[in-house]
Write a structure and sequence with these properties.
CATH topology: Rossmann fold
Number of strands: 7
CATH architecture: 3-Layer(aba) Sandwich
Number of helices: 5
CATH class: Alpha Beta
Distance between the termini: 29 Å
Oligomer: single chain
Largest sheet: 7 strands, mixed
Shape: globular
Structural class: alpha/beta
């Protein structure tokens, strides 16, 4: 796993073998960030990375110059890995929060320009993530939610759905 672009471009991130997260593939991550680069000004963004896993998406945003990233991860092993990698890279604008994502979203009072969520593909209540984010108004005006999911999910009927992109087996649904 590597950081695709920006300040830390080419740096490899090697999570320990006991991490159970399924990282976004480099191909899907590179395609996603190529799309985002044409749509947003990273330096003006605040980002929330939900189900952070290895922190790959958080590190990509930081590398591209976002102001602040909050990474939410419940698993202690993953959280420690993100913190230690962040320290090794000298990152000071990434905050790691150990929390259940649903509880975090219900109590969060911060608004974000981008929220990225990569829940386990088998999560039964995956659609609730989208609903909670919009019910609690966690996006800034013009903000974007990006949900990574399997091909088994279809969010096109959601009132905030904007578009869908598929890169191999990785699917991204965008909400505004």
């Amino acid at each position: 796993m590597r950081i695709v672009s920006g300040k830390y471009k080419g740096r490899h991130i090697n999570p320990p073998k006991n991490i159970t997260a399924r990282p976004t593939t480099d191909f899907a991550k590179e395609s996603l960030f190529n799309l985002l680069t044409n749509r947003i000004d990273y330096e003006q963004c605040t980002v929330l990375d939900l189900f952070s896993g290895t922190g790959s998406i958080s590190f990509e945003f930081v590398s591209r110059g976002v102001r602040d990233v909050i990474a939410v991860e419940l698993a202690h092993t993953q959280q420690n890995f993100i913190i230690s990698t962040s320290k090794a890279l000298g990152i000071n604008n990434l905050t790691v929060v150990r929390a259940d994502v649903f509880k975090y979203l219900r109590s969060c009072s911060i608004r974000f320009d981008i929220i990225f969520a990569d829940p386990p593909y088998a999560l039964e209540n995956i659609g609730q993530i989208v609903d909670i984010i919009f019910e609690n108004q966690l996006l800034t005006e013009g903000g974007m939610l990006i949900l990574e999911h399997s091909a088994n999910n279809n969010f096109q009927s959601h009132p905030h759905f904007a578009e869908h992109r598929a890169y191999g087996n990785v699917n991204f649904s965008f909400f505004r």
